[in-house]
Amino acid sequence: MTTADRIVDAAASLLDAGGESAVTLRAVGLASGVSHNAPYKHFKSRSALLAAVATRDFTELEEAFARIGRERVRPLTKLKRALQHFITYGREFPARYRLLYSDPELARQGGDLEAAAMKSFLTFTSLVSECQQSKQLPSVPPLQLAGLLYASVHGLIDLQAGGQMRSEKGLMGAEAGVLLLLKLLSQAE
Amino acid sequence: MTTADRIVDAAASLLDAGGESAVTLRAVGLASGVSHNAPYKHFKSRSALLAAVATRDFTELEEAFARIGRERVRPLTKLKRALQHFITYGREFPARYRLLYSDPELARQGGDLEAAAMKSFLTFTSLVSECQQSKQLPSVPPLQLAGLLYASVHGLIDLQAGGQMRSEKGLMGAEAGVLLLLKLLSQAE
DNA sequence: ACCTGAACACCGTTCAAGT
DNA sequence: ACCTGAACACCGTTCAAGT
């Protein structure tokens, strides 16, 4: 376990425990046993450190999608499991989730983060594509349908994480929203 | 124009010009002609000031939805115009847009902000409901369908604002995504 | 009631210096 | 190559004091 790994771990833990504002370089240093500016020897800035956390999570997300893709169940079941995994991750680690998709500062950095994000989306697309081949989802261009589904479930997770779906009766949680969407989409062609 | 109004205006301008991190109380004070801690006489904290900006924007959004609802065109045309308004606002003012839906700090404050958010969503729901009555959208519970559409378009706007839909070829912009979603949904019942 | 200026405890980042 | 401690310029927030 390198120092850089311990620093990324500490940042992820602080993120989970107290949100983005809790990830100060001083706290990261303390939690990983180095001085408050040792992280600069491994990451260009605080923002680059957060990008490393996000890149790691994107990679884990992609691995989960790929693992689900290898299961021997119906394509639509795979897709539902992938979406459930996505939703669960977003609910359990909201601060890290927001890092992946809602941080303009990070998105501008490109590089590894962008590549990992793209790879996870492409693996997700292959799950959608399978459903189309087995006629369980309408036959529009796969990347378009996958992009739409990806954006929709992101919106559901994000509104839930942001507390927007709290007191509004009649509004569904992310799981119910995804199931409704899949049901309606499966009726189209 | 009260001092409080000038402070909110200044915060909104700074937000548009330089993102959330540019909204320091010192910059707000300078831009609105008061000292850097005069805002505390009008708002409990920096966070409460940002909530006031978000509340104002939610109110304007609701007014736009209501205005579109009064136009004398087909229900589906109204809905499309409302969604287009939403998307355009998100693209032109990304930092303010993110304040509405992606700031957990603000969501926890409840109060005026939550009420304004709810009102704008309910007005949006009435546009969706009209489409259902004229059989242009499937007849599932209106709040559920409206919630799904709202979350989906939010996801499209948010991914676009976060730069996630940039280099990925084949991925649609928010407008095309919404149109595809409406097309597919209109084929369901 | 509304505002100011000074002060406090933080923060990211830089830099000279150490091994 | 990797790390430290001091320093710099910021920041949100508080407080005593002014009108």
Write the layout of secondary structure elements.
The structure is a homodimer of 189-residue chains.
Chain A: H1 3-18, H2 25-32, H3 46-69, H4 75-92, H5 94-101, H6 104-107, H7 111-133, H8 142-161, H9 174-186
Chain A binds a DNA duplex (19 and 19 nucleotides) through loops.
In short:
Chain A has 189 residues and is mainly alpha-helical. The first copy, chain A, folds into two domains: 1-43, Arc Repressor Mutant, subunit A, CATH 1.10.10; 53-186, Tetracycline Repressor, domain 2 (Orthogonal Bundle).
Report what the structure shows:
- The structure is a homodimer of 189-residue chains.
- With 189 residues, the first copy, chain A, is mainly α.
- The first copy, chain A, folds into 2 domains: 1-43, Orthogonal Bundle (Arc Repressor Mutant, subunit A), CATH 1.10.10; 53-186, Tetracycline Repressor, domain 2, CATH 1.10.357.
- In chain A, 71% of the residues lie in helices and 0% in strands.
- Chain A contains 9 helices and no strands.
- The model of chain A has no long low-confidence stretch (mean pLDDT 91).
- The interface between A and B is large, with 51 and 52 residues.
- The structure holds a DNA duplex (19 and 19 nucleotides).
